[in-house]
Every structure is written in structure tokens, then in C-alpha cells.
Amino acid sequence: MSRSSEARAGLAFTLPVLVATIVFLVVPTVAGLLLSLTDFDIYALADPANLRFVGGRNYTALVANPLFWHAVRNTLVLAGLGVPMAIATSLAVALLLDSATVRWKPVWRLLLFAPYVTTVVATALVWRYVLDTRTGLLNALLAVFGIAPVDWLGDPRTSIPATLIFIVWKAFGYNMLVFVAALSTVSTELREAARLDGAGAVARFRHVTLPAIGPALVLAAVLSVANFLQIFAEPYVMTHGGPAQSTITILYFMFDEGFTWWNLGTASAVAVVLFVAILCLTAAQARLARRQEWL
Amino acid sequence: MPVDGRMITRRDVFALTGGAVAASCAPHGGDRVTWWALGMTGENAPVLLPPFTAATGIAVDLQAVPWTGAHEKLLTGFAGASLPDVMMINTAWLPELALLGAVAPPPPALLADMLAGARAAVTIGGRALAVPWTANGWVQFYRRDLIAEVGYAAPPLDWTAWTRMAQAIVRRHPDRFATLHLLDWPEPLFAFASQTGEPLLRDNLTRGNFRTAGFRAALAFYKQIFDLRLSPMVTGAEAGDTYIGLRRGWFAILPSDSVFLGDVRRPEHAITAGSWSAAATPGPFGAGPQMARGACLVVNRAARDPAAAWRLVAYLAGADLQRRMYGITADLPTRSRAWALLPADPVTALFAGQIAASVAPPAVPEWERIMGEVQIVAEQLVRGTFTVDAAAAEMDTRVDRILAKRRSLLDRGHRL
After folding, report:
1. B330 is in which domain, residue-wise?
2. pTM of the entire predicted model
3. What are the pLDDT digits (tens) for A123-145?
4. Does the structure's ipTM exceed the value 0.85?
5. Which of A173, B116, B132, B140 could lock onto B334 through a cystine, CB 3.0 to 4.6 A?
6. Of A39, A154, A260, the CB nearest to B238
């Protein structure tokens, strides 16, 4: 009797979240999957009778589309360079913040975390000023060292590095906080003991600190990979995918197909492909982490 | 909180909020029209509206929308049933909105006195669906002095003679260029192609028609401009400010439209008046017709107060207002009476002739995307990925793919 009333109470408490999850997560995901099997486009928007079931044709068309592969390549470059850069930056800053000699720690934490919580459009606009060819801060700095101005966002060769600098600056704060929290759990006695046993700074990091923050590292890697594969707002605001389509990412391609040309069938297929890719990558990361006994 | 040295009382707050509520709903049940206007025109539109509101009592909620993202915003607005009563759109988007059934056909009186080319551009399936508002052509702006150096008063209008002149410019200044054809702009190629008179789509507008002798000739001429190094191989982002390039003589000829007229007025471009002029875009055997371009005003089929919406459109598309618009943004008028009010000068006269004789682009919703896709192939042609014939075939393949849905719907007997 009391068990069932307990269960009812439990259900009552979880129901709102459950309903929200189903309505806002499960239903759209399934709808996206179904949409990817149709040719929903502007004709179907005009008249639902023009909607056809096309099976896997959106997927085969995607595989044959060079622009999609171009977007995949750009995204992989961004993620391949960006994830290590972002994690290394976060870890380095967290280690600095963890050092006993640093004062005003809360202030530093706040300042370094601020970019993460600022809106991406506002910061992207500021960075566009920083990266401006003629009046930008970065080129002014380079000019001090006698380096000729670089057209950061206008040149297809520099647009990806320039976007990366911005993304890493924007994103590293979150992982930094995760690492700071993890580092605070590393026991001081263990470190002292290692030091007394003659371990150097590198050895102490490798054998004492790293195992302790391993789980945090896995979390950061999983989240960073997922985030970097879904980059959209930064190139959208900074370069509009240009120059010469050099900053088109998978999500940008999806947006263009879906909302510029209103080919929602194709766009949904891109979304499903990305979903599966991120799922597989995360599974692989989890396996790797389990082997290291970090999970 | 003290304001003006006194405390705000509860009564003040009630008075304020009450006033705001009254202001937001009381006087205008139907006397309010929402309007989206694009680009520079949209930014300048607020100065146009007070006389309208004063004369009619209709308040206008104006939202200025930048050109980038405007197309997405319109389609998303339709899907979400949040389109305004009146919209300024790129005339090339009209087939899309027409297909969606989002626009109401204008009263015929509003179209009287419109230039034939402007009128043709808003006619779909024999029916006018919008009121042309601004018109445009595609011409070549040139530096008089740089052309004169090689013995020409103006650029020749046929491809062979034009190429001879351009080569002379490059021979004289090997470090400079004759023209700037930006590789991510589809307009120059289409301006050449439209003069050949070949239709760009075939089979009831369901397939690409880019392998015709005429289009291939246009492609070959386009490619030759880069092969002979008459233009640098750059995109807009790489070229930087084109006006500064023209002023410094980096190139002598800039193909462009009436946007140029507005931009050269700006002090930062500092292009001396009289140092430049304009000529028609060269064609295979002299200048021919151009594809109609410009913006039009449409009224949402679901407008809350269609009568008020049409009054706004009638006001905006009136000859006097079009003349004023030219003064502010250099947007060219679509009414012949407005043209009569403009100061007579050879450059506007050139545009007037082009606009009157312009031909409508193929009225398919996919047209914007087709132009973009064709230009991507054209860029690859210039960069050496394709020969002219292979590029034309590739364009047909890609465009056929874009039009696949349209083809299948028409095959099944749908009326589009």
C-alpha cells in the first residue's frame, strides 16, 4: 500500500521532466529521423501533398555531394586542432590557478570563465574587430614585430586558424572550471610524498595529478568533441561560411540546406549522420577511458 | 527611486503602465501595418513613413532586415505564420513566395505606369503578384582616364573589341588589371549569358539549358577574361574594398549595378565625380537585353488589414517617393513617371533603357540556388577544373538535380 503510494509520488515528481523530455527531445529526434527519409522541401511546405517518401535517397545524395564532404573536412580540421588546443589551454590555465603561489584566485577564475558565459554573437563581433585587416588589434600587434597585416577572415588559408583562436578563447573556460574542481581533490599528502621520494614536476603530474583528474579529462574530451563537431554560430557570425566556403562546417551546411533552401529532408539527413557520428565517437572515447580505468 | 527630485508614487506607476497599455491597443485596431524592408533601403525607410502616417492615420511597424539572412527569415516566417503584412523582397524570390501562396495579387491600378521590364519580372503565370519598387540593371563602370590612356572614349560593347581594349590596358600596366570580375558573383556571367538570347532553362523550366552554343560562348568569354589575366582570380572577401581598388587604378572597369551609384556618393570612397562613367555590359555582337533585377513590394495573403497594407504599398511605390528614394539610396525607380522626375544624366539614362528592355529571369523557386550553383562551377572552370564544354555539362547535371522535384511534380500533372 505505502509502496504504491510512494511509487505514485515518485511518478508525480518525475512526470513533468519525463513529459518535457519526451515532447522536446524524443519526439523531435524521431521526427527528424522520419523527415530525413522524405523529400520535404519548399514544394512540400507549399502543399503537404507534395511530400514523398524517398527512403535512403537523401543519404546517398549526401555522400555524393562534394560540399558535404568539404564541410566534413572543415569540421574535422576544426575539431582535430580545436579539441587538443581547448583542452590543453584549459588544463594549463587550471594548473596555473591551482598553484599555491597564485593570489586572487576567484577573480582570475571569474575573468577566465567570463568568455564562456558571454553570448557568442556579441563576442564574435568583438573578435571581428580584433581580427580586422586594417584596424584590428591583432594586426597592430603583429605590426610591432614588423609582420605585414594578415587578412585573417578574408583569406581561405587563415580563416580556419582565426576562427579556431576565437572558439578556443570562447570555450576553454568551462573545462578550466572542471579541471580546477578535479585538481582540488588531488590529495596534498600524496603530492608531498611523491616530492619527498624525489619525483620531479613532470613525474608528479604524470603519476599523481593525471590519474586523479582522469575522469574529468574524459568528460572534457567527450564534451569538447561533441561541441566542436557542432560548431555553427562562430563561422555564421564571423565569416558566413566564407571565404570560398572555407569555414563551412557540417552544421552550417545543414542550416544552409534546411533554412536557406528549405530542403528539410536533406538537412535532417545531415543531422542524423552527425548524431550517429557523435554517438560512435563518444562510445569510442568511453571505451578508451574504461581501459585506462578512468570511468 | 527619486526622479526629478521626487519619489515615484504608486499612482504614477499605474498612470504610466495604464498609459502604455492604452497606447499599445487602443487607437489602432486595424490602423497598423507591419512591414519588413531590406538592406540600405530598410535602414533609410523610417524617414519615408511619417508623411504616410500623418496623411492616413495608419501606423507602420517597420523592421529593417539586412540582406544576409533575409531569405531565410522570409521562409521561416512563412512556416511559422509570422510574416508581416507588407514585405520588400528581392524580385528573384517572388516565385518562391508565389508557390507558397504567401502573396496577394496587387490591384491593377498600382501597376499602371510601370516600366515593361519591371512589370515582367513580377509576372508569374501571366499574373502580376507584386508591385515593382526598385529596379536594377548590370553595367560596367569605368575609369575614364585609364580607358582614354589606351585610346578609347568608352569600353566597346562587343566581346571581341572589348577584349582588345582590355588587353591594351594590361599591356600598358602589366601590374594592374583591366577589370574586376569577382569569382563568387554570379551576376557578370549571367549578364553575358542573358544577352545571347538563349533560354537558361528548358523543358517547361524543368532542366538546365547551359550546353547551348550561346551559353557556352558566354562561358568561354568569361573564362578568357581570367585566362588573359584581364581580371584577378579573387572572390569578394579577398578583393577587399572594390571602390578603393577602382580609385587606385588596380583595375579600370568594375561590372556592377545601381548599388555603385549609392556607394560612390559616400565620402570614404572618395571617387572623384567625373572621373568615372558607365557603359552597357558587352554582348556577343553589341549590348543586348539584361535580366530584370530589383526589389518589389508584396502584401501577405494573410494580412490583417489588406486595405491598409495596399495603401502603404501604393504610397511607397508612388513616383514621388521613388524619386526621393533615388536621392537617398540611389535605388532606381520602376515607374516611368518617376524616371521623368530624375535629373537627366547619361548613367541613369543607361539604366533606364536597360530596365525598360529587361527580360524576366526564369520564374522557378529554385532560381537563386541555380545561379549560385552555376557560379560555383564557373569558378571551378576559371580555376582549371573543367573545360568550357565539361563545365556546361556539369552545370546542366547540377541544375537538373536541383529541379528534380519540380520535374517530378509536373510529370505527375501538378500545376505549379
Report:
1. 26-136+292-356
2. 0.83
3. 988 898 888 877 889 989 999 99
4. no
5. B132
6. A154
